[in-house]
Amino acid sequence: MISFLKKIPFVLIMVFFISAGTVWSGEVIQTQESDSWEGVEVDLLSLKIKNNIVTVKFKLRNTGSEEQRPKIFYDSCFIMDETNQKKYYALKDSDGFFIAGPVSDENRGGRFWFGIQPGKSKGMWIKFPEPADNPETITISIPGVFPFEEIELKK
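Predicted structure:
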């Protein structure tokens, strides 16, 4: 009986971390396939607005059988307010580099160019200016990936 009681705290801690991991992992907002890299899917994990800046987070997943090396130039990423027909490109810092990551090198202001092994994933994030006309939804465009359409934009 005493050995059973000693195991209870361990079991409770494990249950807490497993359930917390499920809650903290969040829900995928939308998934799109790549039109350039075989077996690569991109999950839109979050979109947050703070201080007139939109931060989007993605996870690139390799569902194929070979390593993929997606090359994404941050200067080609944008969000679109389709209602008002306006594009908003990724923000730059005072040195002219895009506020995005991870950055493999500074080519054209920064780019994502990392190998992703089969069954593995790699995160990515980008900051954009908040659309001026307060649209209800936006489209997010990343080169090599079908667009993320009708993404709700709320503070």
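Summary: The chain has one helix and eleven strands.
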